[in-house]
């Protein structure tokens, strides 16, 4: 028996030099480790313009076209052969996997990073997912969820019969690159998020609007990120007279350094699988204020390394912030050790590499 040597990794993900986060570091570390073991990897991303961080990887860019179609067309036109296909951030159980198998790929691994809506899927989508599970799951050899929450929803969405080939590999981060918070910046908060409605940042603005002036005037919140909801959030910030509190900073490739300047991360999200932002914040020894959705409760324990509230409950969020400012609530213990021990990048890479080592053609 011989081990597979040629791997394609297809990611519905944009590589951006001003936003280098946990997944970017994973891609590079995984590529390095796999090559050390004799594997040859081609990467397919939604969009990529060359920059130094990715200089050692073989990358093909779909130039913002459909990355699945781009991959299939390139394989067909250039008569490429791959032993293994791994997908990240793609929809599961679609015809793409059947078409990919038809190119001669022997092993298909689908990694699910996709959060589910707070209110669940409509009935029509529930039915369609069940049908897709029956039709296309046979072409996928392994499903990987990035949290127990994600694994549960893979089985719920596509069929419990997939349990035998559905596993969990938690996201991990390179904890060594994070500057640790050592001083208390009591009322400095940070948001690190794509700016879209489902991230719930509008609830943060509502929560702040409820605070009395003497509380609000002590608070500073920096928002790092970009996205389609930014105009609405800026409008709300202005309407609630929060311009002296909320500061939109755009994307940054230096979050691993700047997180240590804050005392809490705010993440009022409605949907999450397993948040890299939370891992990064905790790695910087910065506690987290977040909701009970997705895999958040697999990382954050209320009153231990952060504070938990129910999604959309901006009244509760307002109370949490008020109590922090008034000194009634605080997380004073160090919160980075769990991330360093359980959710580190090396462990994540090793678990994905183990899939390859355990598979023989």
UniProtKB/TrEMBL annotation:
GO terms for molecular function: glycosyltransferase activity. It comes from the Bacteria. Residues 178-329 form the Glycosyl transferase family domain. Keywords: Transferase. The keyword Transferase applies. Coiled coil: none annotated. InterPro entries: Glyco_trans_1, Glyco_trans_4-like_N. Residues 74-176 form the Glycosyltransferase subfamily 4-like N-terminal domain. Pfam families: Glyco_transf_4, Glycos_transf_1. This is Glycosyltransferase. It comes from Flavobacterium cellulosilyticum.
